[in-house]
Amino acid sequence: MIDILPWQKQPLSELIARGEALPHALLIHGRSGVGKIEFARALAQSLLCEAPEDGFACGECAACGWFCEGNHPDFRQLLPESMLDEASTDEVVADVDDKDKKKSREIKIDQIRGIADFMALSTHRDGYRILLVHPAEAMNSAAANAMLKTLEEPAPRSVILLVSDQIGRLLATIRSRCQRVLVPAPDRQTALAWLNTQGMSNAEDALAAAAGAPLDAIVFSNADYQSARRAFVATLAEPDFDYVLSAQNFEKTDLSSLLGWMQTWINDLIRQKMLGRIDHHRDHARAVEKIARNIDLPKVFRFESELRQTRRLIHHPLNARLLLEQLFIAYKQAIASRPTA
Fold it and tell me: Which residue among 1, 70, 75, 212 has its CA within the 20 to 30 Å range from the CA of 305?
């Protein structure tokens, strides 16, 4: 039987047990780092498996072999071109006509049109046909509207799995045509036990930095990731930094990571100011304490809200340097010391 994240076995088992009553469209959602893609792929493989064990994929039959190799004829993925390196291109529908252009962060309408035959024709193995879309919020408006038709007119034994960190960014009409499946975060002990099986020596610190999300904890423990994080956070720790030079230095760093680090830094400032506690960037505790001492909380809360709005645009084409310059300016204004009476 395939390996399944321990905190996902029960919800997966409950879904698989529904058999023919399984909805044709599932919106799989939850916080970052809890394994939503792993959940969706385990569900897809189990539904396609030809010799399941207690409902779960056996991992040994021909169908499981094809699935793991990325060439099962009844499985397709839709994802942004920028994520192609993370998946097998045999099962991915992406817009890759121009190899020299900047890789798109969006799922485009041509990709939706590209799976029309797949969704309409008979299945190859006389079983399920499964389409996995992630992150679903990366669909641009044209793609999202095209997806609606697929959701409204599903072919028999078709299952569409939409995976999302931010379901609020999806069209209400799409949300209404899917049954929601919340992927839970594990409790602390379950997460630590699993991280220890992955050979992590600093599981507790990594899990704390990841706010309890075990898959994020694994990413956070990576040496290159930590090096990039420390360099970025060290900039935020010096309020007099040159925002133009800093934007130039970090423009090629993953934008999602940068925004995440900035948001957790702001959260540390707020928690230190209100509760005397630092949850994320403990290696810069002195800087957090020094800056938090004189901040004006309403200004910082407004900037935190601006950050959340910016993160919702992460899948749109953005000028990284210009965006970082704007955020650095706003950050410096947000943490500026309160005027003395």
Answer: 212
Which tokens go with 230?
């420390």
- The sheet with strand 158-164 has its strands ordered as 92-93, 75-78, 129-133, 158-164, 25-29, 179-182
Question: How far, in Å, CA of 21 to CA of 44, rounded?
Answer: 15
Q: What is the DSSP-derived secondary structure letter of residue 24?
A: S
Q: Report which of 231, 193, 195 is spatially closest to residue 210, judged by C-alpha positions.
A: 195
What is the widest separation between alpha-carbon atoms in the chain? Answer: 76
Burial pattern 144-153, b for ≥16 Cβ within 10 A else e, equals bebbeebbee
Residue with token string 């385990």? 42
Tokens 């799995």: give the residue: 161
pLDDT tens digit at each of 341 positions of the chain: 788 999 999 999 999 999 889 999 999 999 889 999 999 999 999 999 999 999 999 999 999 999 999 999 999 999 998 776 555 444 555 554 444 456 677 899 999 999 988 988 878 877 899 999 999 999 999 999 999 988 988 888 899 999 998 898 899 999 999 999 999 899 999 999 999 998 887 788 788 778 789 999 998 888 888 899 999 999 999 989 999 999 999 999 988 889 989 999 999 999 999 999 988 888 899 999 999 999 999 999 999 999 988 887 776 667 889 999 999 999 999 998 765 44
Q: Pairing mode, if any, of strands 129-133 and 75-78?
A: parallel
* C-alpha to C-alpha distance for 38 and 213, rounded to whole angstroms: 14
CA 5 remoteness from chain centre: 17
Give, in order, the Cα–Cα distances in Å from 77 to each of 175, 181, 293: 19, 19, 48
Count of CB atoms within 10 A of residue 134's CB? 23
Contacts of 147 (CB under 8 A, 6+ apart): 112, 133, 139, 174
